[in-house]
Amino acid sequence: MNQTLVVQFQHATKRIGKKTIVDDLSFDIPAGEVFGFLGPNGAGKTTTIRMMVGLIKISQGEILIMGHSIIKDFNKAIRNVGAIVENPDLYKYLTGYQNLKHYARMAPGVTKTRIEEIVELVGLKDRIHDKVRTYSLGMRQRLGIAQALLHRPSLLILDEPTNGLDPAGIHELRNYLKRLAHEEGVAVFVSSHLLSEMELMCDRVGVLQNGKLVRIQSIRDFVHSGNSHVCVTIEPSQIEQAKRLIATLNKATLPARQPGQLLIPLNKDEIPTVNKLLMQAGIQVYSIQVQEQSLEEKFLEITERKK
Ligand SMILES: Nc1ncnc2c1ncn2[C@@H]1O[C@H](COP(=O)(O)OP(=O)(O)OP(=O)(O)O)[C@@H](O)[C@H]1O
């Protein structure tokens, strides 16, 4: 894995008046990673992105892009960035190709071959000579990405990119972003308030709440973390005995749906201990099922807890 650090947040903070909107962010994003920036509405995601691309000033701290400070060395830093903040700027009465040519004029060193390469990469080859007004939202989104990628940035920033896309469009975008990161080595920074969507798209997620980074974790660890409930089905006449045994482990039992069931908040690695305890006491265990918290439940738990 390429360990070039494409983005480095160093205590980045944004204050507006007396309010701290983004509070002391410190983390890195390496090349080749799709990073999901998650948070409920108003958490500070857009404000962070606006600082990253120099649209607003950083009050305190630093953001480095490919080692260049966005404050002190703006031109060198921004050269490495392709971004779509809010809607992509497209001319609907021009064709996709004309739009790209127009942008290529503003970005030095973009050749005709590069335009063709990028059209191929975003899968718009068959429609690139059609007018943008005939494009679906998903195609417009991809044309926007093509435009942001023309100058070969190391970092692609997308603010809520799936807003307004249908499931097929989301699927397409997701696969495309993963390919871009994993095959082309681009660092992709995607903000969203939808965790379920991030799960399928990102390698790692950072959760923002009230301007603070409250969690940063690989998506795999994130998915497997948190509380799961274990539902143990036993002989109904032994339920009170089983509850007393479980209480000796300092574990609570929650009301279950069926007689003969015990619902225990438990991590997976604690299951063998519980199982052994019940078996040794002669309890008839019929089944043990793990009931994972859904991703949305986990997300809510993290963000609610920190309020
Ligand atoms: N110029 C400003 N002056 C005062 N408050 C602001 C300003 N810009 C943003 N805020 C506040 O900062 C907080 C974070 O806003 P931001 O738009 O960054 O959140 P977000 O995570 O992107 O949310 P959303 O998903 O709703 O876009 C909000 O409470 C917002 O009202």
Question: Would you kindly provide a written description of the structure presented here, covering whatever features stand out?
Answer:
The chain folds into two domains: 5-223, P-loop containing nucleotide triphosphate hydrolases (Rossmann fold), CATH 3.40.50; 227-293, Alpha-Beta Plaits, CATH 3.30.70.120. Strand 7 (155-159), helix 6 and strand 8 (187-192) form a beta-alpha-beta unit. A six-stranded mixed beta sheet has the order 6-7-8-3-9-10, with helices on both faces. It has a four-stranded antiparallel beta sheet with strand order 2-1-4-5. The mean pLDDT is 88. The protein starts with a strand and ends with a helix. It is α/β, with parallel strands linked by helices and 307 residues long. The protein is 35% helix and 28% strand. The chain has helices spanning 45-52, 74-78, 96-106, 112-121, 137-149, 167-184, 195-201, 219-224, 239-247, 271-280, 295-305; strands at 5-16, 19-30, 34-38, 60-65, 68-69, 81-84, 155-159, 187-192, 204-209, 212-218, 228-234, 261-266, 285-292. It is built from eleven helices and 13 strands. The protein binds adenosine-5'-triphosphate. Adenosine-5'-triphosphate binds at residues 16, 21, 39, 41-47, 193. Residues 16, 21, 39, 41-47, 193 line the site of adenosine-5'-triphosphate. One of its GO terms (molecular function) is ATP binding. This is ABC transporter ATP-binding protein. InterPro entries: AAA+_ATPase, ABC_transporter-like_ATP-bd, ABC_transporter-like_CS, P-loop_NTPase.
